[in-house]
Amino acid sequence: MKKIDKFRILVLLKPGETQPAIERANEFARFMPDIEVTACRIINDYDELTRQTLEQQMQRELTNIAKRHPNIQHFVPRIIFSKNVPEALVKEAADGDYTMAIISANRRNKIRDLFVSTIDSQIMRRISIPLLVVKDANAPQRLNRAILLAIDFEEDEHDKKLDEVLFQAAKIFADEFNGEIHVANCVSPLNRGYMGGNAKPSRMLNADAPTSRRDVHQEFLDIFAKEHGLPLEHTHVVLGRVDEEIPRLSKKLEARMVCMGSASNSGLLSPINSSASELVLEQINGDIFIVNDAQRYFE
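The structure assignment produced for this chain is given below.
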């Protein structure tokens, strides 16, 4: 994970008064006063006749937003004109030297979302820096809350570098908010077999292999916990669907956020194959921190 010299946050502002993303950044700034927050408003409904007027109006709005969030001592206004909001934010994230981005979750429309990805879904899959998605700015965000790190050790192409990015991010949040890191692995009830990926669970190749898939995953978790100095009681193996079990565990732990990876799949039918992180986002009350396989953060 790259060294952070200055914590710089890119925040996507929504139209209207309700701004969960900037509210969360304001909360972070209360504990981390040195952070720099770029408040980015992307205007997609414009033409050359209205552009100048809209820019002046937005400059006034950004000034008012800065006044309403006094914890942010280093407030940087940013106005972008683009017909494609996700594309513009992804480009800004790639071009700027930002540590992470914060956006607000969109409301879901299950039928429409089968065919048209929401703005937050498109950003989650394509952004090149770690991303925090805020569902409800008013959700409980007390100190001493759990930070839940969800890792699938059974993935065929499991990326340990991504694990490290997620862990380091979870540690930053835990340190700043006196939280505790918990690590979970959700075991699908569908046996996908072990012909590929990690050969350690094979009873043919390893006579000491665990006797059940739950044991396999607990062993993976135990190794991860020991490598990262986590108490074994902070590891959790749950059996079932990711979008059901991770939210259930998050509620049980009263977690302030879930940290997990996301697939950056694209294409016409990609909304139908929603990644696990998007499914979890629909079910949890807290925030979700995303690192996807398009990111260069750990290079």
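Interim note for the steering committee: The chain is about 35% helix and 20% strand. The longest helix spans residues 51-68.
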